[in-house]
Structures are given as structure tokens and as C-alpha cells.
Design a protein that fits this description.
This protein is an all-alpha fold. The chain contains eight helices and two strands. Strands 1-2 form a two-stranded antiparallel ribbon.
Amino acid sequence: MEFAAVFNEVNMVGFLLLFFRFAALFIATPIFSHNSIPMNIKASMAFFFAVVFYASMPPLNIPITIPTVIIAILSEFLLGMVVGIALQLAYNVITFAGGQISFMMGFSMASAIDPQSGVSMPIISQFLSLLGLMMLFALDLHHWMLLLVDHSLKTVPLGGFVVTNDFFYYLIHATANMFLVGFIIAFPIIALSWLADVIFGMLMKTMPQFNLLVIGFPIKIMVAFAVIIATLTAMMLILKGQVQEAFNALEMFF
């Protein structure tokens, strides 16, 4: 009888809401949202962690009716989407910078399908995105997410998350910061490409036989690759700082 009492409607609804909280985070946040991870694996992970965290689940404080349960499920999805948007804006800094670098190198037409987002992006953006993904693993971002869920269970009741105006202010600031930091990351390559264009223009004036397409573009590409190699560590450190700032900003929701 005691074992059967565990499966009452309050506990079952609480477990369902906890499952949807994990599922929403796995769908929206970097690393877990990677398209190479099948949806059944994500669902299995959400179910497993819901079982693990069930013991630390706070008591359910909502009435058990169909409308309130549906609203609570939508609230849990909203929590995952908000956290995912905040972290994706910080992570997209590196992909935006890669797009600017690809354009300056003449690689904007050399696109490939990004395995994480499933969209076509320049090859440099894809390279930096995959490298940034490995950096997030090195930062233990997947462990941070589990700690985040544990902290949210203590501060945000199941089915009780509400978006405040602070999130919209942060969204505007984070979007502007994504473009600004992306340009800062790509600036060394952009500046050297502009300088190379000036030098090539002067050479073509003094040496009309200078073929820009045959000589100029390979030189620009080699210079850009050299600068990327020299600044790669700085790029990853900037990305690390952006992700850490995004995690600190998540305190406004908890």
C-alpha cells in the first residue's frame, strides 16, 4: 500500500512537470540541442534525470485540474526556452564572427550544413562553432545545466515560472552584445583584409599586370588563416566569458 501511495495524482503530475523541465532544457540549450542527438535519446535523458531529481522535487502547489496542468507544462517549456535563448545568444557570438570572417576571406559561398542547428552556414562559422562546442564541454556546461535545474527546483516552483520584464531587457542587451562582440572577434581579420585590399590596389596601379584573382585572393586567405590561428585562443576565451556572463544573468529568473 505504501508503494502504491507514491503513484498518486499529485506525485505523478509533479514528476510530469519535472520531466518537461528537463525536456525543454535539452531541446533549447547548447550541447543538448545538437541535431545529431536523436529526440528519443533526449527524451530518455529527460526521463532519467527526472527520476534522479524526483527525490529533491518540492511539493506541488497547484490544483490538479486539466487547465492548470496544461498551463504548468507550458510554463516549464517557457523556462527551458528562456534559458536556452539566453545561452544561445552568448554562444552565437562565435558563429556570427565566423560569418564575418568567411565574408572577408571570400568563403561566404563555401557553406555547409551545420550539424548543430541544421542550417547552412559558412565553413569558417561551422569550424568555430564546433570548436566552441568542444570548449563548452571543457567548461562542463552539461554539468552546469544539472546544477541549474537543482537550483531552480528550490527557487522556482514546478509550473510557476513567469517571464518578467527583466528578460526582455536582457534579450535586447544580449542581442546587441552578440553583434558587438562578434565584430570585435572578427576585427583582426577584417582589418588585415582591408589593409591587403589597399596594398593590392596600390600594386595594381603601379603594376597593371598584377592579377588580383590569381595572386591576391590566395594571399588574403593565407593571411586570414594565420590570424585565425594566432587569435584562436583569444576567441575561445571571449566565448567562455560570454557563456559565463549568460549563466550569471540567469539569476534574474531564479
